[in-house]
Amino acid sequence: MNTHPIVRLGIISALQEEQQGLVEAMQGAATHIHGRRDYTTGTLWGIEAVCVLSRIGKVAAAMTATLLVEKFGVSHILFTGVAGSAGNGVTVGDIVVADTLVQHDMDASPLFPPCEIPLTGLSHFAADALLTTCLAQAAAAFVQGDLGDAIGDGDKQLFGLSAVRVHRGLVASGDQFIHNAARINRLGDDHPGLLAVEMEGAAVAQVCFELNVPFAVMRTISDNANEKAATDFLHFVRAVAANYAFYIIKRFCQQTSQASMLSAGTKS
Ligand code: ADE
Questions:
Q1: Residue 85: which H helix or E strand, with range?
Q2: What pLDDT, on the 0 to 100 scale, is given for residue 5?
Q3: Ligand 1 pocket, mutate which of 58, 82, 101, 217 (most atoms under 8 A from CB)
Q4: Residue 1 lies inside a defined structural domain of this protein
Q5: Number of compact structural domains in the chain
Q6: Site residues for ligand 1, CB cut-off 6 Å
Q7: Residue 242 lies in domain
Q8: Mean pLDDT of the chain
Q9: Staple partner for 245: which of 56, 80, 205, 215, CB 3.0–4.6 Å?
């Protein structure tokens, strides 16, 4: 049970490359292996934290989020990683901070409406408003302050990172890497306002809803979820997304007071 009256931040990414640098930056780091994952506890820029790689997919993410809360006593969760763009002005290199998340591949119709999580009455889960605002502010500060130095000129050119923007809105998760233009267009039609697709966020959202833990999700856009989605994917994650995540989490920890984090979850 989570009995800690303090802030202990759980930070999840799916891939090792998406969390590069954070574990190295931890003070007093200690690694605990549980359920085939490494949970590293320590302090990040003054905030007690637990970093873990979920691996890919909704089950992997749900298990990791649950253990973070139930075994490692985290009070708040951030998820950082990459996503495919679903259009609506979102381009490669942009940052999407989720306001709301939906599991696009949940379909128990005709028993329940498509995307509704059976027996919850919900299809969409809201991220914590305060954590989401703090994460979006950290992302904006990163774009203005760190981006110039954080990414090499060659990679900026290769991925066309010239006018990086931070978006807030709907993110859809499913156990599918979307790499088909017709499919991403259909998802956009089915989910008006959809900004990005990925494979974990809405699962973490459901766990956090059920365990009453404030959470936020940040994604760097790595591809357009079309036939070219896998081209340069790992290069992008290593050269771009890893740096985004490191600097944005750093800014988040430095800019967000623990007192304000303790008020998270009370009004979202
Ligand atoms: N993560 C990054 N790109 C993705 C895509 N195209 N589909 C699902 N998850 C992703």
A1: strand 76-85
A2: 56
A3: 82
A4: no
A5: 1
A6: 82-84, 177-179, 197-199, 222-223, 225, 229
A7: 9-260
A8: 94
A9: 80
